[in-house]
Amino acid sequence: MFAIALLQLGGTGGSGGTFAFLLNLLPIAAIFLVFYFLVIAPANKQRKKTQSMLGTLKKGDRVVTSGGIYGTIQGVEADVVYLKIAENVKVKVARSAITGVLSGEAGTE
């Protein structure tokens, strides 16, 4: 209702068309802001948190992989992590496959 009143005040001058155009862009800008704060910003925050977690992996950490394998890190290389998942069983997984570091006592399986 307020927008209609503003458009009526614009008159037939040259600036009225520009004002109407800017007024029409306002809902699109509002939708973009809502989308940014509800989708993009939380995704960026989660990505930074995950990258930080992957960067701080060290020997002895208990982790879980994206495939649901629980293990203890036995070695870390650039893009590879060696996990001990049972006695005398070690697997080589991609660092990006680690989805979380488990809290608690390291080395207990």
Brief characterization of the structure:
With 109 residues, the chain is of the alpha+beta class. It is built from 2 helices and 5 strands, in the order H-H-E-E-E-E-E.
Looking at this protein, list some descriptive labels.
single chain; 109 residues; alpha+beta; SH3 type barrels; 5-stranded antiparallel sheet
Helix/sheet category? alpha+beta
**In whole angstroms, how far apart are the ends?**
66 Å
DSSP summary: helix tally: 2
Helical content, roughly?
40-55%
Beta-strand portion reads 25-35%
Number of domains: 2
Poorly predicted regions? none
Strand order, largest beta sheet? 4-3-2-1-5
Rounded to the nearest angstrom, the radius of gyration is 27 Å
Report on the structure:
With 109 residues, the chain is α+β, with helices and mostly antiparallel strands. It folds into two domains: 2-53; 58-102, SH3 type barrels (Roll). Helices cover 46% and strands 27% of the residues. It is built from two helices and five strands. The chain has a five-stranded antiparallel β-sheet, with helices on one face. A hairpin with a 3-residue loop joins strand 2 (70-76) and strand 3 (80-86). The N and C termini lie far apart (66 Å).
Write the layout of secondary structure elements.
Elements: H1 2-9, H2 14-55, E1 62-65, E2 70-76, E3 80-86, E4 89-94, E5 98-102
Antiparallel strand pairs: 1-2, 1-5, 2-3, 3-4
